[in-house]
Amino acid sequence: MIVSTGLMTMLQKRANKLKNQQDRICILSDHFQLLNHWLELKNEGKSITSYFEEKGYRRIAIYGMAELANRLSEELSGSSVCVDYGIDRDVSCSIARIDNVYFPGDELPKADAIIVTPYFSFEAIKSVLEKKTDCPIISLEEVIWSV
Question: pTM for the complete prediction?
Answer without folding.
Answer: 0.86
